[in-house]
Amino acid sequence: MIPSERPLKWKKILESGPVAASAPCRLDMGGTLDIRTFSYPLRHLQPCTLNIAIDLRTTVRLAPHTRGRIKVSSRGFRAAEFEAGRAPYRHPLGLIFAVAAFFNVEGVHIRIHSESPPRSALGGSSVAAAALVGALHKLRRPRDGRRPVDRRLTALIAHGIEESAAGVPCGFQDQLAGVYGGVNLWNWLPLAAVFRRDILLPRARLRELERHLLLAYVGIPHESSDINGRWVRQFLSGRHRPEWADIVRLTRGFAEALRGRRYAHAAELMNRETDIRRRMTADVLDATGRRLVAAARRSGCGARFTGAGGGGCIWAIGEADGISGLRPRWAEVLAGRSGARLLPAAVAAEGLRMEP
Questions:
Q1: CB < 8 Å & 24+ apart, contacts of 296-300
Q2: How far apart are CA 103 and CA 235, in angstroms?
Q3: Mind listing the pLDDT tens digit for each residue in 146-172?
Q4: How many CB atoms lie within 10 A of CB 226?
Q5: Measured between alpha carbons, how far is 144 from 138 in angstroms, rounded to an integer?
């Protein structure tokens, strides 16, 4: 799957028809532990991250463009175009240009459509990169026909490009949720092993889980690098090490509660994890987020921010009747902020896929 040095005539290939791929976003519990800054020192505790792929898909479509140029268009961002290989990576769309550079792409227009709000802390930018890696691999290897995509390699390439372009430690969970789909516990392993996948729920149980979930966008975008950066700096300085050990244990307990249909217990563990993170960084929740979390707790549910918080989305879990009662309460809170709204929380059984 690693591209060779031989240049490919991307524009000419695409003139016979566009190529597209899509992948889902995710909800998460135990995020940040997927960054090796945390998972390596905590290895003796078996660090893990749980995520639930949500059927808010990000689609990447490739079309022919001016030879020697790369153009990227994405909802919520100003379209950008550069000479191939000259695009800055410190750019709102820099990750996409970095993926294009890895594959030595030119003469291509990359169109990105996400069903989730821009910068909603659902992993959309990482998912777009993973979908683009899948689409470019398909374009390079048309003879593969129906041969399955190498999901592990797709995720690792997308992660490696993101970390190198960002210049800071990045986690793996967004790419893994995007390429695999479903509900998984990711166990973080050292060196080349990287991760072990524990499938928590079979496909037959995914529809059942949806009755226990609620998802809201708070109306303002998140800035995960700021909060994640603070967590990294705190951890490196020796602060909050016991708290991160507690987060490992709570995440693993949450996974077992979810597997065992003990949704009230899962909610309790989620609330304890949220409280720990709020003590470390109070601004993981804005005013609207705090109101949503408080409403969830009054309904007997658990609630936390997605990703690193600081805006974006809040999700809740609980018994079905608790979630049913919480829905109108959250709708009332969200009505007070422009752009805020409930989002569908359908679980995506399918990860990365090629689109017609």
A1: 296/214, 296/267, 296/326, 296/330, 297/271, 298/329, 299/323, 299/325, 299/326, 299/329, 300/264, 300/267
A2: 35
A3: 667 799 999 999 999 999 999 989 999
A4: 12
A5: 8
| Torsional sign, CA 37, 281, 287, 28 | positive
| Domains delineated in the chain | 10-200+349-355 (3.30.230.10), 206-343 (3.30.70.890)
CA 165 – CA 93 distance, rounded (Å): 11
Cα end-to-end distance, the chain, whole Å: 22
- Of 224, 268, 229, 272, the C-alpha closest to 248 is 272
Helix (H) or strand (E) holding 228: helix 224-236
Using one digit for the tens of pLDDT, what is the confidence trace for 117-138? 988 999 999 999 999 999 998 8
pTM for the structure as a whole: 0.94
> By the 8 A CB rule, do 348 and 55 touch?
yes
- Mapped onto helix, strand or coil, the DSSP state of residue 341 is strand
113: enclosing H helix or E strand: strand 108-114
